[in-house]
User: Which sequence fits this backbone?
DNA sequence: CGAGCGGTTGAGGCATGTCAAGAGTTGTGG
DNA sequence: CCACAACTCTTGACATGCCTCAACCGCTCG
């Protein structure tokens, strides 16, 4: 038991409804580990032995192929990642790399798999979590296939503003380099696109975003509940990049 | 009870392990419906009232936005689709349209949600199904972001050959127009790409594909277990386009 | 201070989309 | 059975979106 981290984890949808004894059992089988920034904690293709829970810091999930790589998501506290791989007892599909100093709780996959057979509420929570993650990735795929890069950037900027509480100004939660990769474009192209978007209702100053004409930006981004949300809750890897700080 | 379709459905991973009585109960609450070709049976955004099971024919799942649309998957017998939406009791993220005359078994979503609370084996099956679907979509997203269109086409052609049993020649399971959309490109571009691939070990004659130099094609496609499979089993919508007929 | 890194900008090139036309195929109704 | 319409597929010409390469700025950190 780790009294400092357990309460936060307990509040996650995934663990909220299970019996206390079962939760305690899962936690006692798991342990905390701290990683320095920029460390590759998981390599894609490795067997999935542990469910990972970020309790501090942030983690980047990247897909790799033929020497190329792209950012699939960023996970921030408190949320889990690579649940699906653990359940399938299958290799990780993505590499996980810390963006900063990060504390992770590691829950043995085998205990996890045993637990949802015993605790129905936990099983239902896992079902809901996976369904939610699935829908997030589908939305993401739709965004990639249906929108061009300019529209993706506009949507992203608008959505971040909403996630930050509808504020007109906020700070980008990640480096532009990483954001570009997440949005499926090069850093150079993102930089240029951000500049040209100044004619469409948004001003960029470094990492600072100021929405000057929300209606105009929305006209370009055409936000759609079936792509951009609304059930984007930050408790899962599939939800993509985290909320901005306003 | 529909003795003609029930046995096929019972064999699906999703329903294989549940108690017979529970399965029978689910089936008795559901019903079969036949649709003509080209009919939109589900429109994205509609509430998800029924889990759909294709028992005959084929269904295209398309994403739509701003007047554009793209094919996300094709579902063939016997498999389910839009499981996640049913579980979340959320709107469909994709439109479903029949490609030919199609018979569908409709299972009320509410019965489904009630059932996995009562039948642990079913709950575990749902968990495995969702985890599997999730991984399929992630693989798909990786393919879209990491490979260019030429590489995607090459991978697709190679994978179809493998799914057909490693045969050197087979027939495309879908129209090229649809395949282009699925691979995220225009029909014109697919047509041109297929032609240029003749220098890379594959010959196209109408819908007929003949792999003339497997090694050469593989060198271009760089097939990867973490993108192209291997746990591509055709029982889910997330698995994408179905296997080719050899 | 200098190296390294993220970000920006410009020039040029390749990949991909758009528009248009025509061949081949399928389906339909007279 | 034929004629016609509708559709897919292909090909060409052209436009453009996006990437690549390169240089430079500013910042951070050893």
Assistant:
């Amino acid at each position: 038991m780790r009294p400092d981290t357990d309460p936060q984890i307990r509040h996650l949808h995934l663990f909220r409804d299970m019996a206390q004894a079962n939760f305690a059992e899962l936690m006692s089988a798991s342990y905390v580990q701290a990683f320095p920034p920029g460390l590759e904690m998981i390599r894609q293709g490795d067997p999935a032995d542990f469910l990972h829970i970020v309790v501090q810091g942030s983690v980047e999930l990247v897909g790799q192929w033929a020497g190329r790589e792209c950012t699939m998501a960023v996970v921030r506290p408190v949320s889990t990642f690579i649940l699906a791989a653990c359940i399938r007892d299958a290799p990780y599909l993505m590499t996980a790399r810390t963006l900063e100093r990060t504390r992770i709780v590691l829950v043995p996959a085998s205990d996890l798999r045993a637990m949802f057979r015993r605790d129905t509420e936990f099983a239902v929570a896992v079902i809901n979590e996976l369904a939610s993650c699935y829908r997030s990735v589908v939305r993401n795929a739709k965004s990639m296939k249906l929108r061009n890069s300019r529209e993706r950037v506009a949507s992203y900027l608008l959505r971040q503003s909403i996630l930050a509480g509808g504020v007109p100004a906020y700070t980008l939660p990640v480096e532009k380099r990483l954001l570009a990769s997440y949005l499926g474009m090069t850093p150079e192209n993102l930089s240029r696109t951000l500049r040209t978007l100044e004619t469409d209702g948004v001003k960029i100053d470094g990492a600072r975003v100021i929405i000057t004409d929300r209606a105009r930006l929305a006209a370009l981004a055409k936000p759609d509940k079936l792509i951009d949300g609304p059930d984007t809750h930050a408790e899962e890897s599939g939800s993509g990049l985290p909320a901005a700080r306003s």
Remarks:
- Residues 231-239 of chain B have pLDDT under 50 and may be disordered.
- The first strand of chain B starts at residue 31 and ends at 35.
